[in-house]
Amino acid sequence: MEALYHYLWKHKMFGNHVTDTAGNTLEILYPGAHNNDAGPDFSAAVLRDGDTRLAGNVEIHVKASDWARHGHNEDPAYDTVILHVVGVDDAKVARTDGSEIRQTCVTPPAEFYDRYVILTEKMDSPTCLPWLGIIPALNRRDWMESLGMERLHEKARYLKQLLAENKGDWQQAIFIAFARALGFGLNGVPFELLAKSLPLNFIMRHRDNPVQVEALLFGQAGMLDPQDYPYDEYYQLLCREYGFLSKKYALTPLQPEIWKYSRSRPQNFPHRRIAILATMLTGGMQFYSAILEAKGDIDILKEILDFRASDYWQLHSRFGAPQAETPLPVTLSNSSKEIVIINVMAPFYYAYGSATGEIDLAEKGYDLLQGLNAERNSIVQLWGANGLPARSAFDSQAQIQLRKCYCDKSRCLECRFGHYLLRDSMRQQHILQA
Predict the structure, then answer these.
(1) Residue 28 and residue 54: Cα distance in Å, rounded?
(2) In 10 A of CB 51, how many CB atoms?
Protein backbone atom coordinates (compact mmCIF):
# COMPACT_ATOMS: atom_id res chain seq x y z
CA MET A 1 0.00 0.00 0.00
CA GLU A 2 2.89 2.37 0.71
CA ALA A 3 3.97 2.01 -2.93
CA LEU A 4 0.61 3.51 -3.92
CA TYR A 5 1.30 6.63 -1.85
CA HIS A 6 4.77 6.86 -3.39
CA TYR A 7 3.12 6.79 -6.79
CA LEU A 8 0.56 9.44 -5.84
CA TRP A 9 3.23 11.81 -4.55
CA LYS A 10 5.70 11.20 -7.38
CA HIS A 11 3.15 12.06 -10.06
CA LYS A 12 1.43 14.81 -8.06
CA MET A 13 -1.87 12.99 -8.43
CA PHE A 14 -3.38 15.27 -5.77
CA GLY A 15 -2.54 18.32 -7.83
CA ASN A 16 0.05 20.99 -7.14
CA HIS A 17 -1.12 21.84 -3.61
CA VAL A 18 -1.58 19.98 -0.34
CA THR A 19 -2.67 21.18 3.09
CA ASP A 20 -0.64 20.28 6.15
CA THR A 21 -2.24 19.25 9.45
CA ALA A 22 -1.92 22.83 10.75
CA GLY A 23 -4.10 24.11 7.90
CA ASN A 24 -1.30 25.67 5.81
CA THR A 25 -1.41 25.28 2.03
CA LEU A 26 1.84 24.06 0.46
CA GLU A 27 2.60 24.30 -3.25
CA ILE A 28 4.55 21.36 -4.68
CA LEU A 29 7.16 22.87 -6.98
CA TYR A 30 9.09 19.60 -7.29
CA PRO A 31 8.11 16.34 -5.51
CA GLY A 32 11.74 15.21 -5.35
CA ALA A 33 13.68 12.29 -6.84
CA HIS A 34 12.36 8.86 -5.87
CA ASN A 35 14.92 7.12 -3.67
CA ASN A 36 14.95 3.31 -3.72
CA ASP A 37 17.90 3.03 -1.36
CA ALA A 38 18.19 3.72 2.38
CA GLY A 39 17.00 7.10 3.61
CA PRO A 40 13.95 9.29 2.96
CA ASP A 41 11.66 8.24 0.09
CA PHE A 42 12.08 11.42 -2.00
CA SER A 43 15.16 13.61 -2.02
CA ALA A 44 15.67 17.29 -2.95
CA ALA A 45 11.97 18.15 -2.99
CA VAL A 46 10.98 21.81 -3.31
CA LEU A 47 7.81 23.23 -1.70
CA ARG A 48 6.46 26.73 -1.22
CA ASP A 49 4.60 28.03 1.82
CA GLY A 50 3.38 31.47 0.86
CA ASP A 51 6.54 33.44 0.04
CA THR A 52 8.84 30.88 1.65
CA ARG A 53 10.55 28.15 -0.40
CA LEU A 54 11.30 24.91 1.42
CA ALA A 55 13.90 22.45 0.13
CA GLY A 56 14.62 19.03 1.57
CA ASN A 57 13.42 15.45 1.66
CA VAL A 58 9.96 13.88 1.86
CA GLU A 59 9.08 10.70 3.70
CA ILE A 60 5.89 8.71 3.05
CA HIS A 61 4.01 6.23 5.23
CA VAL A 62 0.55 4.73 5.26
CA LYS A 63 0.25 5.63 8.96
CA ALA A 64 2.02 8.53 10.66
CA SER A 65 2.89 6.23 13.57
CA ASP A 66 5.10 4.22 11.18
CA TRP A 67 7.66 7.03 11.56
CA ALA A 68 8.53 5.99 15.11
CA ARG A 69 7.92 2.30 14.44
CA HIS A 70 10.63 2.42 11.73
CA GLY A 71 12.98 4.27 14.07
CA HIS A 72 13.17 7.47 11.99
CA ASN A 73 12.85 9.63 15.11
CA GLU A 74 16.28 8.33 16.20
CA ASP A 75 17.94 8.38 12.76
CA PRO A 76 19.79 11.62 11.78
CA ALA A 77 19.35 10.69 8.10
CA TYR A 78 15.70 11.74 8.48
CA ASP A 79 16.39 15.13 10.07
CA THR A 80 16.35 16.64 6.55
CA VAL A 81 12.68 15.70 5.98
CA ILE A 82 10.53 18.80 5.38
CA LEU A 83 7.22 16.99 4.91
CA HIS A 84 5.77 13.72 6.10
CA VAL A 85 3.03 12.44 3.73
CA VAL A 86 0.63 9.92 5.27
CA GLY A 87 -2.66 8.22 4.64
CA VAL A 88 -3.68 8.10 8.30
CA ASP A 89 -2.82 10.93 10.69
CA ASP A 90 -2.51 8.98 13.94
CA ALA A 91 0.62 10.59 15.44
CA LYS A 92 2.88 13.61 15.36
CA VAL A 93 6.46 13.08 14.16
CA ALA A 94 9.74 14.74 15.13
CA ARG A 95 13.43 14.85 14.29
CA THR A 96 16.18 13.58 16.56
CA ASP A 97 16.35 17.01 18.25
CA GLY A 98 12.62 16.89 19.03
CA SER A 99 11.55 19.52 16.46
CA GLU A 100 8.21 18.67 14.87
CA ILE A 101 8.02 17.82 11.16
CA ARG A 102 5.22 19.10 8.97
CA GLN A 103 2.72 16.46 8.03
CA THR A 104 -0.01 16.19 5.41
CA CYS A 105 -2.71 13.56 5.30
CA VAL A 106 -3.78 12.57 1.79
CA THR A 107 -6.51 10.11 0.85
CA PRO A 108 -7.31 9.07 -2.72
CA PRO A 109 -11.00 9.15 -3.71
CA ALA A 110 -12.92 5.88 -3.60
CA GLU A 111 -13.12 5.67 -7.41
CA PHE A 112 -9.35 5.92 -7.68
CA TYR A 113 -8.76 3.26 -5.03
CA ASP A 114 -11.33 0.91 -6.59
CA ARG A 115 -9.69 1.22 -9.99
CA TYR A 116 -6.24 0.74 -8.45
CA VAL A 117 -7.34 -2.49 -6.73
CA ILE A 118 -8.85 -3.85 -9.94
CA LEU A 119 -5.78 -2.94 -11.99
CA THR A 120 -3.22 -4.46 -9.65
CA GLU A 121 -4.90 -7.64 -8.47
CA LYS A 122 -3.69 -10.89 -9.99
CA MET A 123 -6.01 -12.19 -12.71
CA ASP A 124 -5.74 -14.43 -15.77
CA SER A 125 -5.90 -11.49 -18.15
CA PRO A 126 -4.91 -7.80 -18.05
CA THR A 127 -7.32 -5.97 -15.77
CA CYS A 128 -7.29 -2.74 -17.80
CA LEU A 129 -9.05 -4.28 -20.82
CA PRO A 130 -12.50 -2.76 -20.08
CA TRP A 131 -11.01 0.77 -20.09
CA LEU A 132 -8.58 0.62 -23.00
CA GLY A 133 -11.05 2.47 -25.20
CA ILE A 134 -10.88 5.65 -23.11
CA ILE A 135 -7.10 5.93 -23.59
CA PRO A 136 -6.40 8.27 -26.56
CA ALA A 137 -4.98 6.58 -29.66
CA LEU A 138 -1.84 8.74 -29.52
CA ASN A 139 -1.15 7.64 -25.93
CA ARG A 140 -1.62 3.99 -26.89
CA ARG A 141 0.67 4.26 -29.92
CA ASP A 142 3.36 6.09 -27.95
CA TRP A 143 3.42 3.45 -25.21
CA MET A 144 3.49 0.57 -27.69
CA GLU A 145 6.44 2.16 -29.50
CA SER A 146 8.31 2.41 -26.20
CA LEU A 147 7.44 -1.18 -25.27
CA GLY A 148 8.62 -2.49 -28.64
CA MET A 149 11.97 -0.77 -28.21
CA GLU A 150 12.17 -1.97 -24.60
CA ARG A 151 11.80 -5.56 -25.73
CA LEU A 152 14.35 -5.13 -28.53
CA HIS A 153 16.77 -3.62 -25.98
CA GLU A 154 16.26 -6.59 -23.64
CA LYS A 155 16.95 -9.15 -26.35
CA ALA A 156 20.01 -7.25 -27.53
CA ARG A 157 21.20 -7.08 -23.92
CA TYR A 158 20.79 -10.87 -23.68
CA LEU A 159 23.05 -11.26 -26.75
CA LYS A 160 25.63 -8.90 -25.28
CA GLN A 161 25.54 -10.91 -22.07
CA LEU A 162 26.20 -14.10 -24.04
CA LEU A 163 29.01 -12.30 -25.85
CA ALA A 164 30.62 -11.32 -22.54
CA GLU A 165 30.25 -14.86 -21.18
CA ASN A 166 32.00 -16.21 -24.27
CA LYS A 167 34.88 -13.70 -24.29
CA GLY A 168 33.67 -11.74 -27.30
CA ASP A 169 32.96 -14.76 -29.52
CA TRP A 170 29.95 -13.76 -31.64
CA GLN A 171 29.81 -17.23 -33.23
CA GLN A 172 29.25 -18.94 -29.88
CA ALA A 173 26.81 -16.26 -28.74
CA ILE A 174 24.73 -16.61 -31.93
CA PHE A 175 24.82 -20.40 -31.62
CA ILE A 176 23.37 -20.24 -28.10
CA ALA A 177 20.75 -17.65 -29.07
CA PHE A 178 19.67 -19.65 -32.12
CA ALA A 179 19.44 -22.83 -30.05
CA ARG A 180 17.25 -21.07 -27.50
CA ALA A 181 15.01 -19.74 -30.26
CA LEU A 182 14.48 -23.28 -31.56
CA GLY A 183 12.92 -24.11 -28.22
CA PHE A 184 10.04 -21.81 -29.17
CA GLY A 185 9.29 -20.85 -25.57
CA LEU A 186 8.38 -24.27 -24.20
CA ASN A 187 11.93 -25.66 -24.44
CA GLY A 188 13.85 -22.40 -24.73
CA VAL A 189 15.81 -22.87 -21.49
CA PRO A 190 16.74 -26.55 -22.14
CA PHE A 191 17.99 -25.62 -25.61
CA GLU A 192 20.07 -22.80 -24.16
CA LEU A 193 21.55 -25.16 -21.56
CA LEU A 194 22.34 -27.65 -24.33
CA ALA A 195 24.21 -25.06 -26.40
CA LYS A 196 26.11 -23.78 -23.35
CA SER A 197 27.15 -27.31 -22.37
CA LEU A 198 28.80 -27.92 -25.75
CA PRO A 199 31.59 -25.56 -26.90
CA LEU A 200 31.20 -24.74 -30.56
CA ASN A 201 34.84 -25.55 -31.32
CA PHE A 202 34.21 -29.18 -30.27
CA ILE A 203 31.40 -29.46 -32.81
CA MET A 204 33.38 -27.73 -35.56
CA ARG A 205 36.05 -30.44 -35.38
CA HIS A 206 33.38 -32.85 -36.63
CA ARG A 207 31.47 -30.52 -38.93
CA ASP A 208 32.04 -32.74 -41.96
CA ASN A 209 30.44 -35.75 -40.24
CA PRO A 210 26.64 -35.21 -39.82
CA VAL A 211 26.27 -38.34 -37.68
CA GLN A 212 28.87 -37.17 -35.17
CA VAL A 213 27.33 -33.69 -35.01
CA GLU A 214 23.94 -35.24 -34.21
CA ALA A 215 25.55 -37.60 -31.71
CA LEU A 216 27.15 -34.70 -29.85
CA LEU A 217 23.88 -32.76 -29.64
CA PHE A 218 21.55 -35.65 -28.80
CA GLY A 219 24.04 -37.10 -26.37
CA GLN A 220 24.50 -33.81 -24.54
CA ALA A 221 20.71 -33.44 -24.45
CA GLY A 222 20.58 -36.64 -22.37
CA MET A 223 18.61 -38.45 -25.08
CA LEU A 224 21.06 -41.29 -25.81
CA ASP A 225 21.18 -44.46 -23.72
CA PRO A 226 22.41 -47.70 -25.39
CA GLN A 227 19.87 -49.70 -23.38
CA ASP A 228 17.00 -47.92 -25.11
CA TYR A 229 15.69 -48.81 -28.58
CA PRO A 230 18.00 -51.81 -29.25
CA TYR A 231 16.45 -52.32 -32.69
CA ASP A 232 16.81 -48.75 -33.87
CA GLU A 233 20.07 -48.95 -35.83
CA TYR A 234 20.45 -45.20 -36.25
CA TYR A 235 19.88 -44.58 -32.56
CA GLN A 236 22.45 -47.20 -31.59
CA LEU A 237 24.95 -45.64 -34.04
CA LEU A 238 24.50 -42.26 -32.35
CA CYS A 239 24.97 -43.90 -28.94
CA ARG A 240 28.28 -45.44 -30.01
CA GLU A 241 29.51 -42.17 -31.49
CA TYR A 242 28.57 -40.18 -28.40
CA GLY A 243 30.16 -42.78 -26.13
CA PHE A 244 33.46 -42.17 -27.89
CA LEU A 245 33.13 -38.37 -28.19
CA SER A 246 31.94 -37.81 -24.62
CA LYS A 247 35.08 -39.53 -23.30
CA LYS A 248 37.28 -37.62 -25.72
CA TYR A 249 35.95 -34.24 -24.59
CA ALA A 250 35.01 -35.18 -20.98
CA LEU A 251 31.36 -34.22 -21.58
CA THR A 252 28.57 -34.50 -19.02
CA PRO A 253 25.08 -34.76 -20.54
CA LEU A 254 22.01 -32.87 -19.34
CA GLN A 255 19.24 -34.64 -17.48
CA PRO A 256 16.58 -35.86 -19.95
CA GLU A 257 13.82 -34.73 -17.59
CA ILE A 258 14.40 -31.07 -18.48
CA TRP A 259 12.73 -31.49 -21.88
CA LYS A 260 9.03 -30.69 -22.13
CA TYR A 261 6.52 -32.35 -24.43
CA SER A 262 3.13 -31.17 -23.16
CA ARG A 263 1.12 -28.88 -25.41
CA SER A 264 3.46 -29.79 -28.28
CA ARG A 265 2.60 -31.63 -31.48
CA PRO A 266 4.83 -34.65 -32.32
CA GLN A 267 6.37 -32.82 -35.30
CA ASN A 268 7.49 -30.09 -32.87
CA PHE A 269 9.13 -32.38 -30.32
CA PRO A 270 12.60 -31.24 -29.19
CA HIS A 271 14.23 -34.19 -30.98
CA ARG A 272 13.26 -32.72 -34.34
CA ARG A 273 14.46 -29.25 -33.38
CA ILE A 274 17.79 -30.68 -32.27
CA ALA A 275 18.07 -32.42 -35.64
CA ILE A 276 17.61 -29.05 -37.37
CA LEU A 277 20.20 -27.49 -35.07
CA ALA A 278 22.60 -30.27 -36.11
CA THR A 279 22.00 -29.46 -39.79
CA MET A 280 22.83 -25.81 -39.11
CA LEU A 281 26.21 -26.85 -37.69
CA THR A 282 27.09 -29.48 -40.27
CA GLY A 283 29.63 -28.17 -42.75
CA GLY A 284 30.68 -25.30 -40.52
CA MET A 285 29.04 -22.50 -38.56
CA GLN A 286 28.29 -19.93 -41.28
CA PHE A 287 25.29 -18.41 -39.51
CA TYR A 288 27.05 -15.37 -38.11
CA SER A 289 28.67 -14.16 -41.34
CA ALA A 290 25.59 -15.01 -43.41
CA ILE A 291 23.37 -12.78 -41.27
CA LEU A 292 25.78 -9.88 -41.61
CA GLU A 293 25.98 -10.30 -45.37
CA ALA A 294 22.18 -10.40 -45.66
CA LYS A 295 22.02 -6.81 -44.36
CA GLY A 296 18.49 -7.23 -43.05
CA ASP A 297 16.91 -8.58 -46.25
CA ILE A 298 13.99 -10.72 -45.03
CA ASP A 299 13.97 -13.05 -48.05
CA ILE A 300 17.69 -13.74 -47.73
CA LEU A 301 17.38 -14.31 -43.99
CA LYS A 302 14.64 -16.88 -44.61
CA GLU A 303 16.88 -18.63 -47.14
CA ILE A 304 19.61 -18.81 -44.50
CA LEU A 305 17.14 -20.71 -42.32
CA ASP A 306 16.45 -23.36 -44.98
CA PHE A 307 17.99 -26.11 -42.84
CA ARG A 308 16.85 -29.66 -43.59
CA ALA A 309 17.02 -32.37 -40.95
CA SER A 310 18.33 -35.81 -41.90
CA ASP A 311 15.97 -38.27 -43.62
CA TYR A 312 15.53 -40.27 -40.39
CA TRP A 313 13.29 -37.49 -39.11
CA GLN A 314 10.81 -37.74 -41.97
CA LEU A 315 9.09 -40.59 -40.14
CA HIS A 316 10.21 -39.99 -36.55
CA SER A 317 9.17 -37.44 -33.94
CA ARG A 318 11.51 -39.11 -31.44
CA PHE A 319 13.76 -42.16 -31.41
CA GLY A 320 12.43 -45.72 -31.73
CA ALA A 321 9.94 -47.16 -34.20
CA PRO A 322 8.63 -44.78 -36.90
CA GLN A 323 5.68 -42.77 -35.58
CA ALA A 324 4.46 -41.28 -38.85
CA GLU A 325 2.77 -42.96 -41.81
CA THR A 326 3.39 -39.99 -44.10
CA PRO A 327 6.60 -37.92 -44.19
CA LEU A 328 6.84 -35.18 -41.56
CA PRO A 329 8.29 -31.77 -42.45
CA VAL A 330 12.05 -31.69 -41.91
CA THR A 331 12.49 -27.94 -42.41
CA LEU A 332 11.31 -24.89 -40.49
CA SER A 333 7.94 -23.51 -41.54
CA ASN A 334 7.70 -19.93 -42.74
CA SER A 335 6.15 -18.84 -39.44
CA SER A 336 8.94 -20.59 -37.50
CA LYS A 337 11.55 -18.81 -39.61
CA GLU A 338 9.92 -15.48 -38.81
CA ILE A 339 9.98 -16.27 -35.09
CA VAL A 340 13.72 -16.96 -35.33
CA ILE A 341 14.25 -13.71 -37.23
CA ILE A 342 12.31 -11.83 -34.54
CA ASN A 343 14.11 -13.44 -31.60
CA VAL A 344 17.66 -13.80 -32.96
CA MET A 345 18.42 -11.86 -36.11
CA ALA A 346 16.72 -8.55 -35.33
CA PRO A 347 18.31 -8.36 -31.84
CA PHE A 348 21.65 -9.41 -33.35
CA TYR A 349 21.65 -6.50 -35.81
CA TYR A 350 20.71 -4.12 -33.01
CA ALA A 351 23.32 -5.48 -30.59
CA TYR A 352 26.12 -5.82 -33.13
CA GLY A 353 25.46 -2.41 -34.67
CA SER A 354 25.39 -0.78 -31.25
CA ALA A 355 28.60 -2.53 -30.17
CA THR A 356 30.52 -1.62 -33.34
CA GLY A 357 29.08 1.87 -33.83
CA GLU A 358 27.41 0.87 -37.12
CA ILE A 359 24.17 2.77 -36.58
CA ASP A 360 22.68 1.76 -39.95
CA LEU A 361 23.12 -1.89 -39.02
CA ALA A 362 21.56 -1.35 -35.59
CA GLU A 363 18.52 0.21 -37.29
CA LYS A 364 18.14 -2.96 -39.37
CA GLY A 365 16.92 -4.68 -36.22
CA TYR A 366 14.10 -2.18 -35.85
CA ASP A 367 13.32 -2.24 -39.58
CA LEU A 368 13.13 -6.04 -39.59
CA LEU A 369 10.47 -6.07 -36.89
CA GLN A 370 8.48 -3.41 -38.72
CA GLY A 371 8.67 -5.41 -41.95
CA LEU A 372 7.50 -8.77 -40.57
CA ASN A 373 3.90 -9.80 -39.95
CA ALA A 374 2.61 -9.75 -36.39
CA GLU A 375 3.02 -12.98 -34.47
CA ARG A 376 0.03 -15.22 -33.88
CA ASN A 377 -0.43 -16.22 -30.28
CA SER A 378 -2.92 -15.87 -27.45
CA ILE A 379 -1.38 -12.65 -26.14
CA VAL A 380 -1.62 -10.88 -29.50
CA GLN A 381 -5.15 -12.17 -30.04
CA LEU A 382 -6.26 -10.91 -26.62
CA TRP A 383 -5.00 -7.37 -27.15
CA GLY A 384 -6.39 -7.30 -30.68
CA ALA A 385 -9.84 -8.37 -29.50
CA ASN A 386 -9.83 -5.45 -27.07
CA GLY A 387 -9.01 -2.67 -29.48
CA LEU A 388 -5.21 -2.88 -29.58
CA PRO A 389 -4.36 -4.56 -32.91
CA ALA A 390 -0.83 -5.55 -33.97
CA ARG A 391 0.08 -4.58 -37.52
CA SER A 392 3.68 -5.83 -37.47
CA ALA A 393 6.08 -8.00 -35.49
CA PHE A 394 7.23 -4.83 -33.73
CA ASP A 395 3.66 -4.32 -32.45
CA SER A 396 3.25 -7.94 -31.37
CA GLN A 397 6.59 -7.81 -29.55
CA ALA A 398 5.37 -4.69 -27.75
CA GLN A 399 2.19 -6.50 -26.73
CA ILE A 400 4.15 -9.47 -25.42
CA GLN A 401 6.39 -7.10 -23.45
CA LEU A 402 3.35 -5.36 -21.99
CA ARG A 403 1.72 -8.61 -20.91
CA LYS A 404 4.77 -10.46 -19.57
CA CYS A 405 6.71 -7.59 -18.01
CA TYR A 406 3.90 -5.38 -16.73
CA CYS A 407 0.51 -7.11 -16.56
CA ASP A 408 1.73 -10.48 -15.28
CA LYS A 409 3.94 -8.76 -12.71
CA SER A 410 1.20 -6.34 -11.56
CA ARG A 411 3.34 -3.35 -12.54
CA CYS A 412 0.31 -1.22 -13.37
CA LEU A 413 1.78 1.78 -11.58
CA GLU A 414 4.73 1.66 -13.98
CA CYS A 415 2.57 1.15 -17.07
CA ARG A 416 1.46 4.19 -19.03
CA PHE A 417 -1.97 2.65 -19.56
CA GLY A 418 -2.39 2.15 -15.82
CA HIS A 419 -1.03 5.64 -15.13
CA TYR A 420 -3.48 7.22 -17.55
CA LEU A 421 -6.44 5.31 -16.12
CA LEU A 422 -5.56 6.21 -12.53
CA ARG A 423 -5.00 9.85 -13.42
CA ASP A 424 -8.32 9.78 -15.28
CA SER A 425 -10.08 8.55 -12.14
CA MET A 426 -8.61 11.49 -10.20
CA ARG A 427 -9.63 13.92 -12.97
CA GLN A 428 -13.19 12.59 -12.94
CA GLN A 429 -13.33 13.13 -9.17
CA HIS A 430 -12.16 16.74 -9.55
CA ILE A 431 -14.87 17.34 -12.18
CA LEU A 432 -17.52 15.96 -9.85
CA GLN A 433 -16.33 18.14 -7.00
CA ALA A 434 -16.34 21.22 -9.24
Answers:
(1) 10
(2) 5
